[in-house]
Amino acid sequence: MFGEKELYSLKMRAAQGGPHEKGGRHISGSERIIEKNAVDKEVLAMLERAKYHQRGAADFISIKVELIKKEQIRYRQLLAFSQCEAASVEAGRKVALAELESAGVTPLAARKGLQAIAALPDSMRGAMLVNAVTGSRMDDLGNRGVRVTNMDVDDAEKFATALAQHGLQGDHVREALVLASKVAGGEGVVAELCWSDDPLYVTGYVGSAKNGYRRIQVLKKLHDSVGGRVFFIRPDTDVPALIHYLQEQVIFIRTGESASVD
Ligand code: AMP
User: Fold this and answer.
1) Could you give the number of structural domains in the chain?
2) 221: pLDDT strictly greater than 90
3) Is residue 1 part of a domain?
4) So what's the pLDDT on residue 260?
5) For residue 142, what are the domain limits?
């Protein structure tokens, strides 16, 4: 646990051709919450990741460091992890649709949401909010989307042990599990669909409070550098409140006994 030590939020975003807000192409981003004495090391690690990302060389990198107030912190449970079988992109996307439906998304919305990622000309920085019944877009954040920040695990050792039990390692799955757990705990969220924009990482997932984190081995072709996220939400969702939760609310993910279903 973090105890009484001071905590800082670190946010990195990198782009090519200038800053995102001036039309630069999104290269990579990353979020952590860490103790004060680890800030210097993590800032350097983020800088290295930003400079040498598979999507290309960044010429704009922003790293923001902010003190977190203890009274801002809320907690959510780590989603249970399990794996779906899929040997091809086609099979993986079929599984994704079935998983979304099982989580409560209509077949129409699931298809439209998946298609919205597949049709992107290039990766967005954030996620699209999509109506879980009709499949229409519900945020007005355009190409930027909703960027989920201000989250981390509350016990890094326990979390690493839980991942190791599933033979999981690496930044991708670590960050995705934390993000998916925060997202699934948002008021109005039914499910999430994600696949990476890293051209060498073809794995994705469907996350939901109902079924947990369902990893899908293949969701895109190797060397495809377009990925994305869709958060499917109930039609009656208070969208501004949800966006505030996703972007601003500080969430620590607890690794409990229910962190596994298989
Ligand atoms: P990644 O899993 O980091 O390769 O990201 C895949 C896609 O998910 C990116 O292209 C973005 O569109 C989206 N994404 C990445 N990080 C976030 C985030 N913190 N919040 C919302 N969407 C994100």
Assistant:
1) 2
2) yes
3) no
4) 42
5) 75-259
